[in-house]
Automatic annotation (TrEMBL):
This is Na(+)/H(+) antiporter subunit C. The keyword Coiled coil applies. Keywords: Cell membrane, Coiled coil, Membrane, Transmembrane, Transmembrane helix. Belongs to the CPA3 antiporters (TC 2.A.63) subunit C family. The chain crosses the membrane at residues 6-25, 32-55, 75-96. Gene3D superfamilies: 1.10.287.3510. The lineage of its organism: Bacteria, Bacillati, Actinomycetota, Actinomycetes, Streptosporangiales.
Amino acid sequence: MNDTPTVLLIVVIGVLVAAGVTLLLERSLTRILLGVILLGNGVNLMILSTGGTAGGPPLLGFTPPEEMSDPLPQAMILTAIVITLGVTAFLLAMAYRSWQLQGHDEVQDDAEDRRIATGGERRRARQYIRAQKRALRRTIRAQRSALEAQIDAQDELEEAQRAVIREQIAQARRDLEERLEDADDEARARLLDSQAADARAAIEEARRRVREARQELAEHLRTDRENERRLRRELRQRIRAQKQQLRASIRAERERLARAEDSDMQGVD
C-alpha cells in the first residue's frame, strides 16, 4: 500500500498554513488568533500525513508489530492540540481585555521601540541641520574670500592707475620745465595754460575711472550681501520647518504614550 499522502491532503495543508501565516501578520488580535488556529490545524495534518497508512492499535500482544500504526505522530498531534488550546485561550483573553480598555483589538506599537525610532529621527534631523549649517558657513567663507580677493585686485588696479597718473603728471612737469627754460614770457604763459588744461583733463579722467571702479565694487558688495542674506534666510526657513515637523512628531508620540499609560483615557466611550 502506498505511504505517500494524497494531493488533496497536501493542498489542504498548504492552504491552511498559508492562510494562518497571512493572518498572523495582521495587527488585529482576533485575526492573529484565527491564524494560530489555522496554522496549528495545518501542522497537525502535516504531522498526521507522516504516519503512513492506517493500521491497528499500537499495543503489544494485541496487534502484530508490522500492522501497527506509528504512535509518534498521534502523540505529537495530541500535544500540539493542547498547546494550541492554551495559546487560543491566552489570545482570547488578550483580545477581550484590549477591546474592554481601548475599544479595539489592534496590537499597539511598543513604546520603547517608538522612543528609539523617534530618537534616531531626532539624531538624523540634528545631523542634517548641522550639515546644512556647515555647508552655509563654507559657502559664506568662500564668498567672503572671493570678495576679499576681488577687493584686493580692485585696490591693486586703482593703485596702478594712480601710479600711472602720477607718472604722467611728473612727466608733464618735466616737459613743462624744459619748455619754460627755452620759451619767453608770453609763450611760457600759454604753455602753462595748455599743460594745466591737459593735466586737469588727465586728472578728471583718472577720477572718473576710480569712481566707476568704486561703483562696480559697491555693486559687487551689495550683490554678495544680498546673496548671503538670501542663503541665511533659506537655511533658517528649512531649519524652522524641520524643527516644527520634529516637534509635531514628538508631541504626537507623547500623546500616544500618555494614552497608552493612562488606562482612564482608553476605551471609556
